[in-house]
Amino acid sequence: MNWLEHILGNNWTVTPAGGSTGEAYYAQTEGKRLFLKRNSSPFLAVLSAEGIVPKLVWTKRLENGDVITAQDWLEGRELQPEEMNHPRVAALLSKIHHSTELLDMLMRLGKHPLTPDEVLKDLKENQKVLSQLDPSIEIQKAMEFLEERVDQVHHHVHVVCHCDTNHNNWLLSDNNQLYLIDWDNAMVADPALDLGMLLYSYIPEVRWDEWLKEYGIEPDQHLYKRMIWYAVSQALAFIQWHQMRGEYDEASIRLDKLKRMMIKQNIMD
């Protein structure tokens, strides 16, 4: 972490912040606390300006071209699974999905709208890489389901999607401000990609219509078709990601979630 000492000086205490990339750190000194990250996307500045992530304090470029960002390190906690039912979650996700500023920035960064065909193609290619593993019946059935439905889930509206709306990415600060953090995997895609994962993971089905109205739309059958398709595809993508990293216990947990979702939706028949 020599680069951190070079930027901050030696009177700061720096500790790793965890995360999948291993490039995030907490830094503190007398009266000051920061969250630092190496090579965050320029997208972070727009997210900060929109109040979606904690405030961006500064950005610095190192001699090797790496970019370091510093954000306010806020006291707070991640949401509990049952709190995903709160109208504020629906309102913040709606704000993100309807932001033309976020969409313009991601498009300028070279992101093109993700189509269901591309999602399926990536899943198939990853499964070939994982061919040494014996795929479970759930994975086989899930892939068949996605292939059979791929032509039915195209949608002409594309928005900025977070792509991992897990409850531990929602931060409630001690001053009662809600944020959605960890934007490394953001894409331009069908809003059903975010909605499917969130609703199938956290919201009782009897409350879906009400939750979606709080989000700002009147649901229809085509939306529900797209939501289950993306929920299954994301579940598969996370299983593959953990398998490729050798994290088989985590992959097994994700597989159990996929199995429960597929049984509930009669996909295992």
What's the gist of this structure?
It contains 10 helices and 10 strands. The chain is an alpha+beta fold and 269 residues long. Helix 3 crosses helix 8, helix 5 packs parallel to helix 9 and helix 7 crosses helix 9.
Give me the CATH architecture of the largest domain, please: Alpha-Beta Complex
Largest beta sheet, briefly?
A: 5 strands, antiparallel
Structural class designation: alpha+beta
- CATH topology value of the largest domain: Aminoglycoside 3'-phosphotransferase, Chain: A, domain 2
Overall CATH class of the largest domain: Alpha Beta
Series of secondary-structure elements, N-terminal to C-terminal: HEEEHEEEHHHHEEEEHHHH
Principal-axis shape equals globular
| CATH superfamily annotation of the largest domain | Aminoglycoside phosphotransferase (APH), C-terminal lobe
Number of helices: 10
Low-confidence stretches: none
The Cα radius of gyration reads 20 Å
Mean pLDDT: 90
- Residues in helix, %: 40-55%
Q: Taking strands numbered 1, 2, ... along the chain, how are they ordered across the largest sheet?
A: 1-2-3-5-4
Number of distinct beta strands:
10
Percentage of residues in strands = 15-25%
Distance between the termini: 53 Å
